[in-house]
Amino acid sequence: MGFLKEFKEFAVKGNVMDLAVGVIIGGAFGKIVTSAVNDVILPLVSGIIGTPDFTNLYVVLKGAVEPGSPLKEAKAVENAVIFAYGSFITEVVSFTILAFVVFLMVRGINKLRKKEEKAQEVAAPAAPAGPTQEELLTEIRDLLSKQK
């Protein structure tokens, strides 16, 4: 019974729930970034470079592949060795955008935390100074002399 209780405490803690929400939002955000890369950024870049689709950029290392054929057909050729660098370019662009957005988010959160810490430092009044050791000893001495 102790194992189940311990698991329940672990699963219900705020950090686990925050992590679950983060994973769900991260998955959705990943889809947004993928769409932005594939539907907005890469078409602009390919318009400048002149290649309409990065996924079909590849080099045939071995095999009889018809020049200019789509990557899917090139991979279907028996004993063909294909170096498909177009998909890699797409993933690198996607990762770079995602990393940059996460960096901006973390940077913004850190700025907010610093502002909050400064506001708390300003808002918190200084603690009143307590009596010094000498003042306490003097008070004790006076109380003792009154008792006699």
From TrEMBL:
Subcellular location: Cell membrane
A matching Pfam family: MscL
Topological relation to the membrane, as annotated: Multi-pass membrane protein
Main localization of the protein described in the UniProt heading: membrane
Residue intervals passing through the bilayer: 82-106
GO (cellular component) term, any one: plasma membrane
GO MF term (any one): mechanosensitive monoatomic ion channel activity
Keywords: Cell membrane, Ion channel, Ion transport, Membrane, Transmembrane, Transmembrane helix, Transport
HAMAP family documented for this protein: MscL
Database matches in NCBIfam families: mscL (TIGR00220), PRK00567.1-4 (NF001843), PRK13952.1 (NF010557)
Function, as annotated: Channel that opens in response to stretch forces in the membrane lipid bilayer. May participate in the regulation of osmotic pressure changes within the cell.
Family to which this protein belongs: Belongs to the MscL family.
Subunit composition and interactions: Homopentamer.
Protein name, entry field: Large-conductance mechanosensitive channel
